[in-house]
Design the sequence.
């Protein structure tokens, strides 16, 4: 297919160029114009489309301008690893990816939470990160008590932690998590693991407060529940959880969670392989060879410089000695002359 596309472009330009050049067919101007137009057209086609797979190629602004972009990707396909971190994807890896892999990264890139507080507040979000965090809640005597809560995946659906943003402060997002994604962290020093379940039951039984959307002032019980279920999160780890994003994933990545996980696994494999290629023994050996050659060249240069300085020093010393001897004995024999200087006789 690439050969057919390029051949068609070549034939088309061979008949089109004569309309814009000055000297007609088979002249220097004709071939130069044809070459320039072919190069420009081929560059535009390869920039917009992958002619080997017959599919369009889209880029992020930073990816095309700087050659690399950082994406948030879950560390594991099956969810055993509980941490996520930015992964760098360069143009080489991007162009070798399939359509579904690029679509997955672009959709999640567009799902990033806005840094504008007015747009971000009350946004339903999903976080590709689990972990334990410390929260401060009101105690019985209206004093602050420190508790440990665990942000986790849902037990039945295995979905990543979900909640909604309450506020943005100091570059951090304050997220109130759904009941299925938060529990007391007994393993992290919290002796009483029932306190949060009691708060959940009391909040559900409360008919006066609307804590889910924070539209009114909560009572003491509900205020304590809000404090216990709200934690600070880095906005880079949060993604908009609107239903439209799920539809996009179903249309362009996969209609099941297994297919989406398979695409995510391919992306991680490509990133890992690219990293290993950069750190391969062949690459290291070539770099070491260049380093050794550079060191040898520097040593040889230093040696030549030292020899040149030594020769210059010897020439200077011989010149000084000859000058001194000529001053002391003007009619003496010159050691550098081929015949001795004799005194003049008549």
Sequence:
């Amino acid at each position: 297919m690439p050969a057919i596309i390029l051949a068609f472009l070549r034939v088309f330009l061979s008949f089109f160029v004569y309309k814009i050049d000055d000297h007609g067919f088979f002249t220097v101007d004709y071939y130069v114009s044809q070459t320039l137009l072919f190069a420009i057209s081929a560059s535009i086609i390869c920039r917009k489309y992958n002619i080997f797979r017959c599919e369009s190629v889209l880029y992020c602004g930073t990816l095309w301008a700087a050659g690399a972009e950082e994406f948030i990707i879950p560390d594991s396909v099956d969810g055993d690893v509980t941490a996520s971190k930015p992964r760098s994807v360069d143009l080489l890896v991007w162009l070798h990816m399939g359509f579904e892999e690029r679509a997955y990264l672009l959709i999640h890139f567009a799902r990033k939470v806005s840094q504008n507080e007015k747009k971000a507040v009350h946004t339903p979000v999903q976080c590709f990160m689990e972990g334990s965090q410390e929260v401060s809640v009101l105690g019985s005597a209206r004093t602050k008590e420190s508790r440990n809560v665990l942000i986790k995946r849902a037990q039945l659906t295995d979905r990543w932690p979900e909640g909604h943003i309450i506020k943005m402060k100091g570059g951090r997002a304050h997220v109130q998590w759904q009941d299925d994604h938060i529990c007391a962290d007994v393993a992290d020093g919290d002796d009483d693991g029932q306190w949060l379940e009691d708060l959940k039951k009391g909040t559900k039984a409360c008919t006066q407060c609307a804590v889910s959307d924070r539209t009114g002032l909560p009572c003491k019980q509900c205020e304590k529940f809000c404090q216990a279920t709200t934690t600070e999160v880095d906005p880079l780890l949060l993604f908009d959880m609107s239903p439209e994003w799920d539809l996009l994933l179903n249309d362009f990545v996969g209609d099941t969670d297994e297919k989406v996980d398979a695409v995510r696994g391919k992306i991680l494999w490509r990133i890992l392989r690219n990293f290993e290629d950069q750190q391969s023994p062949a690459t290291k050996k070539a770099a070491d060879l260049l380093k050794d050659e550079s060191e040898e060249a520097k040593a040889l240069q230093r040696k030549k410089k030292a020899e040149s300085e030594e020769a210059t020093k010897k020439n200077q010393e011989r010149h000084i000695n000859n000058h001194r001897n000529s001053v002391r004995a003007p009619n003496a024999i010159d050691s550098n002359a081929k015949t001795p200087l004799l005194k003049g006789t008549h």
Remarks:
- Residues 2-56 form one domain.
- The two ends are 105 Å apart (CA to CA).
- Residues 281-328 form the longest helix (48 residues).
